[in-house]
Task: structure prediction
Amino acid sequence: MPNIINIADLNTQPMPPGMAPEGDACEKYGATMAYIGPLLGAQKLGYNLTQIEPGKSAFPYHCHRVNEEMFFILEGDGQLRFGDAHQAIKAGDVIACPAGGPETAHQIINTGGIPLRFLAVSTRLTPELAEYPDSGKFGVMAQYTGADGKPEMFLHVGKREQNLPYWD
Result:
């Protein structure tokens, strides 16, 4: 029998330290999440329920070079910024964000008056390279098993011009 969770039974929580917005970023970003994948025992896909407060986004405008994402809008309405386009979104919409460069960069913005809730599903290939066209930043993320057998995460955010020479 498959593991089953009803979305109505989930409570979203603030993002973990290191992922939660701080300082001035709190004016633009405001989301809570319920991580469903680990509860279901998922191995190759990540699932979460995301809730974005009115006037905010969950994450900066970004693209993934490795992983693909899908979003199913459950409640509320907003705007999808995808590549050079902006498109209205509402409950019932399904959004595909394939892996690629800046032409696949995306961001979901809550332009409505109530929380925007959606189910996010993504592949979980590692390592991953994410790029942030608005700021010129990139992030390298890798998940691996530590010496103690527990999952660990490597995350480095930087800018290309901050690159160190190979032999330094």
